[in-house]
Amino acid sequence: MEIGLIGLGKMGFNMAERLRLGGHKVVGFDFNKEATARLTSLGSVGVDTLEDLVKNLSAPRAVWIMVPEGDPVDQTIARLLPLMQQGDTIIDGGNSNYKDTQRRHAALKPQGFHFVDCGTSGGIWGLKEGYSMMVGGDPEAVNPLFPIFETLAPGKAEGWGHVGPSGAGHFVKMVHNGIEYAMMQGYAEGFSIMKAKTPLNLDLVQISKIWQKGSVVRSWLLDLTADALEKNPTLDGLTAFVPDSGEGRWTVFEAIDLNVSAPVITESLIRRLRSREDNNFTDRMISIQRNAFGGHAVKKA
Amino acid sequence: MEIGLIGLGKMGFNMAERLRLGGHKVVGFDFNKEATARLTSLGSVGVDTLEDLVKNLSAPRAVWIMVPEGDPVDQTIARLLPLMQQGDTIIDGGNSNYKDTQRRHAALKPQGFHFVDCGTSGGIWGLKEGYSMMVGGDPEAVNPLFPIFETLAPGKAEGWGHVGPSGAGHFVKMVHNGIEYAMMQGYAEGFSIMKAKTPLNLDLVQISKIWQKGSVVRSWLLDLTADALEKNPTLDGLTAFVPDSGEGRWTVFEAIDLNVSAPVITESLIRRLRSREDNNFTDRMISIQRNAFGGHAVKKA
Amino acid sequence: MEIGLIGLGKMGFNMAERLRLGGHKVVGFDFNKEATARLTSLGSVGVDTLEDLVKNLSAPRAVWIMVPEGDPVDQTIARLLPLMQQGDTIIDGGNSNYKDTQRRHAALKPQGFHFVDCGTSGGIWGLKEGYSMMVGGDPEAVNPLFPIFETLAPGKAEGWGHVGPSGAGHFVKMVHNGIEYAMMQGYAEGFSIMKAKTPLNLDLVQISKIWQKGSVVRSWLLDLTADALEKNPTLDGLTAFVPDSGEGRWTVFEAIDLNVSAPVITESLIRRLRSREDNNFTDRMISIQRNAFGGHAVKKA
Amino acid sequence: MEIGLIGLGKMGFNMAERLRLGGHKVVGFDFNKEATARLTSLGSVGVDTLEDLVKNLSAPRAVWIMVPEGDPVDQTIARLLPLMQQGDTIIDGGNSNYKDTQRRHAALKPQGFHFVDCGTSGGIWGLKEGYSMMVGGDPEAVNPLFPIFETLAPGKAEGWGHVGPSGAGHFVKMVHNGIEYAMMQGYAEGFSIMKAKTPLNLDLVQISKIWQKGSVVRSWLLDLTADALEKNPTLDGLTAFVPDSGEGRWTVFEAIDLNVSAPVITESLIRRLRSREDNNFTDRMISIQRNAFGGHAVKKA
């Protein structure tokens, strides 16, 4: 079928390619003209304006947005809406907060537009391996998009599903990322313990490779970790600084709002915050407290 | 080659079978005569005494112990030693504490015996899929056992390795299990959050299956979780009670001894402890504190 | 000076009394006629309508609201506003979210009303010992209220302060409660450990009393804990169920929004959530995972 | 009464002084001759050998050891024993592990010596305010020491007690310190959150002083914190590096051994470990994982 794709970054460009290879007509827009030119050169239709994007698609249109969450999504929708017709569908495939999604759906539906949310996992590997997609929205909006999901997914009926009403897709993706935080932190702690056990002189690369086969902790994340460790076994040249892009903290907020205790996902987030705290104030407060009651020496800067 | 196997439980019996299928001569002992009879019926040699086990093996012998950690390992070694000869090798394939392993190694070596530790992962699936094995010990003891490891492993050169001196195998397996705790807790928290989001009415079985393909959180553990959830999507009939068999707490102790902060593995253990605390005293203490300063009502039993 | 007081519950009634004893004229309103009658019987002016409350105060008026946070505060303000005059001051002394406070301040100021926030600590003991108060608001609104704060506080210039602009009082009180959660959890864990050490047969009441004098952990909270433990040393008859009234979770949200890692306050909140989870789903998920990979028995309900 | 005191450091010297002021004869030993000379100059008996210490005391003797836990305690006992007589008592007033205490008690008792453990809290403030003491040991050993405890304590019958058999004193002190960790971490997190809320421009010194009077979080630790903050409100010149001297980690080990979930005391310890991890390996591992699956940029050193 035909699909418009707005945002040809790391994720969007590869999705466009996977769709083209799957036989769909892809019309792709990005502010970056190099990206659209490259898309065209590969056989899709790269365009430089949203007007051209809409013109190149037959109604009822399906336009997939793959831009950073928050204002960029709202702005894209605002600019797109006047160009589109009732019955057209917008799919937000990015990492939006499900509450924003539900707000957007509530605003678009009365105007006659469909709004579908798709939590998309798979990162930079999706072009080759397919994307895991959790889709939320009204069935009449989601059903016509099946050919798109079937192509993007790892298998026609695998790795994707319509998980619920509007927002459900982004909600499930949010939790997915929360779990991802916990898994990453778990692996990282384990490797740190092994690295610290210097008398055993353990080879972290060897161990990561052993665990890839037959162990209980084998996973795709471990496969990637093993490869990355092999390239840089001591992690030299890296700073201990871990960003978070939003979904982890939303998962924590949601757990608390739902009165669900989720200590490990929460702590995984907190450790990321900690990684960005220079000359930690909390630790310095404890130093002065220890000094105040026990006369313990403080470490000077 | 020939190998003795002591302990034909869930793990040991299947390992014996995988070895037999791989062309090795297996002599298996267990106190349970049904298990030894079944082993014999499948084509290996089931015996009812350690004397018979030793007699049925040619020197230098390799005897693999697969019994619960702690006293059972010490007792097995004590009873085995008088029957064996210098140059024979004992392999502890169970979940022993690496410090016990190092102590046993230090005791056996001067007496002329080899002692090898093998952390074995794979659970009840190992017969079919192979076992992931982390081996510790002296090279002269480990090297002759390569045919055994190559057969038990998922692939000849995959899923196992000689990771270091005595104790290294059990140390790495211990950390492996610590990571396993964190992964399990991470998944479980995520599913709990989704279950609690009742307005979205999410289908946990569907979601676990989606994530198996293409998602960042895909793993073998998730595969098993998806299957188990499908059989009992509401987890009815289960009690919220989680045992721990030792390796998780050892990982926590070790992290602290090494001055490595490992909050997520630690919290995963703590939650297991919490699952077994009935009428939690800590919570009741907080209740009386709240009542004492704020007059907040306490909930009566 | 004169002051109106809306909400004569556990906190409000005692504050009214402390103000009366300090020489102020107090006009108190509550829906509960018993409370207003009792106030009158003690020498203050108890009234049954907001109209009467306002009428009994000279302009510019100061009206202190002591009602549950959220809608009750908004409703009280909405009903009060038409009765009051420009230049009058409303003080919110309850546990409101500082963001609500800032919103209310922003709405009231252009209408000519002052709005002051006062985080009030001290619980049911304030009548006797005085209240600790953290005040936020415009100086021209806060300054005329000094006589009120000086009377309510433990000492004229002790235990209270104008800590910043609108919202600052409630923000500081919110953090105060976060710290309170951590302290309570810390004490409760310590006593739980001692209780569990059965071979030492420790007397928790005795120990709490020892620590009250000279120890590093002495505190007012410990004083109250010691008294409460003495009355019920085994905490019999209590259920392990701990509510949370909002400020703890707001502190956690705020810490995350500010990118401050606050693991102990956060975990103290999470444990309260945990105390209210019956037949914990997370634990049951872990049980089925353990069963799935290792054949470990699950505990049936 | 007469008492020997070995170890005239920060704690020991002040205890000797408080005992002298209370009318006891104190014979004090330290390797540091300045300390013994100073003790003598104040009116006690400073000695430079253990022989002299023992000679200056009448049998049955009471000798209080105030040295670092571990080997120093064992060495002191070993050197003291040949000089003493059956019926003499050794008191370990330091921060020993209660398991060491029980081992020492079991070794000394059959030789006819008494061994008493005293967990001592109060830090550098004890001289003035008295020490909180938790005493363990056999009643026939503890009872004759009452005059000593009554003098050291904040009040004759306040702030100390015989809490149980050998080891009980050190056990309770260990838990006391665990609670102390949690309280310090709780306060420090709270102040960090307030400091980070830059739009409110909160004055941490002012707030700490407000909370000292009437608030629920008032405590001796807060008093000290307020004083320390006043001297250095920005904590300039300090490094975020927090040592731990043993009792916190023992509390964590003990909680786990007792199957008591104590997440907040545990996390308080873990944060101290974290404060000492430079260029945290765990965080760098997470960085390469994020890069590996999502192409997220890593921060270079």
UniProtKB/TrEMBL annotation, chains A, B, C, D:
Gene3D superfamilies xref list: N-(1-d-carboxylethyl)-l-norvaline Dehydrogenase, domain 2, NAD(P)-binding Rossmann-like Domain
Matching SUPFAM superfamilies: 6-phosphogluconate dehydrogenase C-terminal domain-like (SSF48179), NAD(P)-binding Rossmann-fold domains (SSF51735)
Keywords: Gluconate utilization, Oxidoreductase
GO terms of molecular function: NADP binding; phosphogluconate dehydrogenase (decarboxylating) activity
Pathway involvement of the protein, from the record: Carbohydrate degradation; pentose phosphate pathway
Cited SMART domains: 6PGD
Pfam families membership: 6PGD, NAD_binding_2
Residues covered by the 6-phosphogluconate dehydrogenase C-terminal domain: 169-297
GO term, biological process aspect, one: pentose-phosphate shunt
EC annotation from Swiss-Prot or TrEMBL: 1.1.1.343, 1.1.1.44
Recorded family membership: Belongs to the 6-phosphogluconate dehydrogenase family.
Stated name of the protein: 6-phosphogluconate dehydrogenase
Origin species: Granulicella aggregans
